[in-house]
Write a structure and sequence with these properties.
It is built from two helices and six strands, in the order αββββββα. It is an alpha+beta fold.
Length: 102
Amino acid sequence: MKAYDTLTEALDGLRKQGFTLDYNLKSDRLHCQTNNIELQPADFDIVDVYRFEGETDPGDEMVLYAIEAANGDKGTLVDAYGPYSEAVSPEMAEKLRYTPEN
């Protein structure tokens, strides 16, 4: 996993690696507005996770997920973490608990 200093740098790096779709988090699924794709937790894997903290504002804490769908599509999901994170279903919460494989 490559280390990135900023969210923008990470998004640029992942796009160069083919993670071109932008997903939005819904309570029980991911949604890509561009092509109206919806992914249930069983339909995708998290490849990598990057966390970023705001230097001056704890409200700027963000997490970036690199996502690969079962059909091979790749994209990213950006979300707040901590008290500003979205409420999600138990299945989605479990899926977002990414643990890198050793």
